[in-house]
Each structure stands twice: as structure tokens, then as C-alpha cells.
Amino acid sequence: MAEEQTIKKIVLAYSGGLDTSIIIPWLRENYPGAEVLCVCTNVGQVENWKAMEKKAIASGASSYELVDIREEFVSEFLFRLLRAGAVYEGKYLLGTSVARPLQAKVQVEIALREGADAVAHGCTGKGNDQVRFELTYKALAPHLQVIAPWRMWDIRSRTQAIEYAKKHNVPLGDISEKNIYSRDWNIWHMSHEGGELESPWNRPSEEMFQLTKSPQDAPDQETEITLTFERARPVALNGEKLGAVEMVERLNELGGQHGIGRTDLVETRLVGMKSRGVYETPAGTILFRALRELEMITLDFETLGMKNQLALKYADIVYAGKWFTHFRESMDAYMETASEYVSGDVRIALYKGNVIVTGRRSPYSLYLEDLASFGESSYDHRDATGFINLYGLSTGVEAIVHRKAPSEGGPAEEMKAMAGFHEK
What we know:
With 424 residues, the chain is of the alpha/beta class. Helix content is 42%, strand content 18%. The strands form 3 sheets. It has a 5-stranded parallel beta sheet with strand order 3-2-1-4-5, sandwiched between helices. β1, α1 (18-30) and β2 (35-42) form a beta-alpha-beta unit.
């Protein structure tokens, strides 16, 4: 390859899976003499980290580094996503999408620290993650060369990848052709693709799910919880103050037990094709629902409306991997100001896949019971007459002007009648 004379140190985003494991010997073959440094990020997935390190070295890596980024992931990425209300195509809570920029950032930081010439990833040429990783590289270290083996080598199937691994003595562990699902797991969600899911007509098998019980097997009694938010960030569960990571872990456990957070989605990938994925997002589902209810009593009409519009755009750019952009930062600035008074408590019942809101309260609630009551209140019903006359003025003018046969007396008299004017 043309770059082999200049690339002497490569930092690989390493997951321990089949794809990134066979990349190690492939890089050593195609960039002779180059060191391959494996970087793994802990974003909340449960792994045998010692075994992963051993596998990386056995596959030919020069070094392996594990970085625990759970706190930053939840506090600075997931909770910003939550505050924005960003849901892609109305269903996807962006668990994989929002993790990739942070994982790529850590990879870039290590590459710069180690004086590397290039960064590499194991994303396929069909998927979204290649864009998310590489946009982050461009934003943070555009001078680094990018190596994307799936766009370069001749391997085109899982069978071929396994054959390559065996030929190069890459430890396979429990990897086999029978392990049909492609999964991504972090503290926010687990995604499932492949296997029977490739037909959108097929129902997912119950054995596929890892984080959530079937609603049929969930408890027959509901569990009621109270979530406390400060400026749109969850800070307490049932009155107990919790850190960001512990909050998500607790809600994952509660939601999973009650079968909450399953989403079956045919989504539009960045490269244009449709793909089907099934997601499990227990904590995220609970938090999104709770925060939405709190916003409904604390945000005025215009602020909430603009926030809802921006949420759609926020979801699109996170899905596209454009986290490290001025546009995303600008939207976050709006979200921070808009959420200044989004503080209070939301009471929720968890029951067989359902998140049922049973109460909400806030010191900044714009809901005034006296005004909304059907009983006696300080609201003067007579004020509505003038309001309707003014609010409907343009509607009435349009109707009068567009009418082909104005009534006797002309538009001026009709306007007086519409406005409720009467000569004495």
C-alpha cells in the first residue's frame, strides 16, 4: 500500500469482536513494521476485560488500553440527549449513535498522545458507524490518516472472516457462524441486528432479548417510582440522590424487570438503505417519558414548541455522527436555557412494558389549579369575547373579502357585525 512507508503506528478502536480482532493481523500484513495499539472503551457493557486484553495481544497487537468513560458518557452525552428530547424517526433513542463520537474522541486522544500516524476502525461500508467515527476524526484530528479495512479488503462475509481468523491464529472464543446476531451494548441500550430480523415480517425470538423480560413474564404487580429532575437532569430516585451512572443502572434494572424499553424499528441509514434493528432501552424509555411530562407543566407554549422542533434536528445530527459541531453546541445552548425551570418530580408506575405517569409537580409549574378548575375561579369568562374577536379578526376579514356576494351594507358593515359593534 502507498501509505506503508509513512504509517508506523496505528491506533485501532477495539471491541474484542470478530471484525476488530482480524483487523489486527490484517494491519500488520498490510503495513509492515507498524505498531497496532488497541483502544477499548467501557461504556457500560459487561465484558471480561482481562480476556479481551489477552485476545488483543494474542491477535498481534503491540499494546492494549482500556478506558472507563461511563461517567462522561452518561453525564455529558446521554443526559444532553435526554434534555434535548432527541428521538430518531420517532422511535430510536440513539444508544449506539451517541456513543460513537465519544469512543472516537478517546481513540483520537490516545493517538495524539502516542504520536500515531493513523486511526483504524472495524465499521462496515454499509453502516452508519463508519461516518460517526470518521466525522469525529475530522473534527478533532484531521491530519490523522484513516484506515477502514472493511472498505479495503476482500472479506465479505462472516464465514470468510472466521476463516481468516483461524488462518492467522486469532482466538475465536464463543464466536461462530451460529452466533447470528450483531449486537452493540452500552449502559443506555442493547441493539440487535441480523438473523431472522433481516426480514421485517419476522417476529423477534424471545431468546434474543438480553436486558428485558417479556411483558408476559413481568410481575403482575406494578412498581411505582418517583424521579426528581433539576434543570432537566435526573438527580434522585424515590428521594435518594444518585450519580448519573447509578441512576441509569438502577432504572435499567427496574425497567428490564417490567419488560420496558423494547423497540422494533426499520430505520433509514445514512447511506440510504433501510435496515431493521431491535433495541432494548429500559432506563432511557423511562427517563424520556418522565422528563416529557415535567416539561409539559414547566415550559410555555413557544419554548416547548421550539424545543420540539429542535429535538427532531438534534436527533438527525446525532444519528449522523455530527456531535463535534458548532450546530450541535448551539442547539445545546438553547436546550440549557429552555430547561432552566424544568425541575420537579414525576411519579411513574411500571407495569408489563408500560410506563404510566401517575403524577407530576414542580415549584415552577405553569399549571394553576385555580385557573384550570371547572369550579369557581378568578378567571372571568367574559374576557373570552374580546379575545376571540381579536384572535379571529384575520379569519373573518378573509371570509368577507373572499366572498363573491357581500351582504347588503358592504364589508364595513359586516366587519362591525363580526366584531360585535352595535349602534345605539
